[in-house]
Amino acid sequence: MKIKKGWIPIFLLPAVILFLLIYAVPLVMVFVTSLFDYRLTGQGMTFIGFDNYVRLFHDPDFAKALFNTVIWIFIQCIAHVALGTFIALILYKKPKGWKFVRTAYMIPNIISNAAIGMIFLNIFNPQFGIINSVLKAVGLEHLTHNWLMDSSTAFPSVTLIWVLFAGYTTTLVLAQALSIDESVLEAAKVDGATPFQTDLFVVLPLLKKIIGTTMVMAATYMLQMFDLIYITTNGGPGKTTTNLPLLLYGVYKGENNYGYANTIGVFIVVIGVVAMTVINKALKVNDEDY
Amino acid sequence: MSHMQMTTKERVLCVLKYLFLALCVFVALFPIIWVIMSSFKTNAEILSNGVALPKTPSLTGYRNALTISPILNYFGHSIIITTVSTVLNVLFLAMAAYVFARCRFRGRDVLYFILSLAMVIPMTALLHPVYSVIQALGLYDTKTGLILVYTALNLPMSLLILRGTFLSIPRALEEAAYVDGAGFVRTFFQIMLPCAKGGLTSAAVLAFLQSWNEFTFALVLTSGQDARTLPLSLSYFTAQFSFDYPAMFAAVTIAVIPSIIVFAVFQEQVVSSLTAGSVKE
Q: How many domains does chain A have?
């Protein structure tokens, strides 16, 4: 096929410019500025080597944010993905209304997190929120809490805002499960496997790759989680529900310490790479042999 | 297996299965239904009983939401920013994806690999540098700034979907066009884009949802009301409406309805594009 080669760079140019401006240049900047004392714009930058990193490892807020981030990644990769996969394993047998369940379950995932945050801020509202209203209605008044503002309940309450909504996981795992060859399932049945055994020993292993993918997505999502926490607890009370992006935002906007904020940014990027490698290794997501 | 042959154990399991699925639907839909319902209540009704139905549906919440805050302006900003960034994203990425799928040139695979790395970069790590870039371009607190960022945020997903789409279109179509004397650009716009309609819709729907819902960069890249988007404006509502709960619920309802409509209309597209984006590869 004869193609005027001159058009190739022109067709690539917009995408490459977007990539450079919003991904590549900021990525380089985040690494470079983490080595500088870089505060308010216009005050210049001083090279300080790894001082920001030294501060990072002595910063109790960072320890707390890192701890929460890692815990949330674990919870999301295990509980959230397991729930989504479990629902997909029910739906792939196409019970009545399976498409409706898939659609309904996706809805919390496709509306904005700002709205979800506002909704849960009100669900947990101590005066008229659903949870306290129901507790009062059934005579469990003593169990009512200011869920998001009480340090003993804030962490699990915030977690609840995202952990149950596994619509993406369900949709992806379901799509893969529906593509499994009928004959494989028939063969298992002929060999005398119960439906439960078939799911556990035949279907699940065939879904390993997509489950790995959803785990990577869940980990990346939690690593970047900002809006839901910002709107509901803003990391509080104290630092109970803070995570790395929230800490970064606080250092960036509150302290105007850009060098240190970007050091946290470097850490987020590094954790992203580590998490992805670990999950891929653990599940051998890149295996080609099945 | 017919229902006649089900044992008691199987029947119990079947009931449990449907109860569980009903619970899932309840958990997913109840919060949204609650908000929509509450938007039609009065403040007094909400404060006296959080879960009761409104006695007579009132539109005061909506009237207040529209008068207390310029929510229609924010809605307009969101429409402009989302539409423009979605169109640009799909156009630019279709151009790039077409070249990656069809043309041979030196460094093609390396460039494709580098661009798809965008998929794995956690963007909240880059809040300040992205702000610096937008500031340096003179686009801080402008719709153009947000359009630029949103167009880029959907780069990796659109690239993946659209390259797959172009690879699946038979080459014979273009060859016929070239034989007929059509040029590269005309072939792309008049022959290839219409053929890639499915992939373009998928990419556009995902880009629309992401841009419509985006919060974090809107927070960092705007300061005033000129470019404030709808999701961002929600976070100001608690303070702004000072305990006018129906107005706040009305605002949340206004923000979620477009996403739900787009999802309802393009549901199959969303599912297939998500699947294409992560199952293949």
A: 1
The answer to whether the Cβ–Cβ distance between B126 and A30 falls below 8 Å is yes
Residue A123 domain-assigned? yes
Domain of residue A168, residue span: 63-283
What are the backbone angles phi and psi of residue A47, rounded to the nearest 5°?
A: -70, 125
Does A6 map to a domain?
no
| Residue ranges of domains in chain B, CATH in brackets | 3-61 (no CATH), 71-278 (1.10.3720.10)
CATH of residue A235: 1.10.3720.10
pLDDT digits (tens, 9 = 90+) for B19-71: 999 999 999 999 999 999 988 988 878 877 777 788 888 888 888 888 877 88
Tens-digit pLDDT profile for residues B159-207: 988 998 898 888 888 888 888 888 888 888 988 999 888 889 989 999 9
Q: Which of A58-62, A156-160, B51-55, B198-202 has the lowest mean pLDDT?
A: B51-55
Looking at residue A189, its amino acid is K
Identify which of A1, A41, A269 has the shortest CB distance to residue B121.
A269
Would the CB atoms of A113 and B215 count as touching at under 8 Å? yes
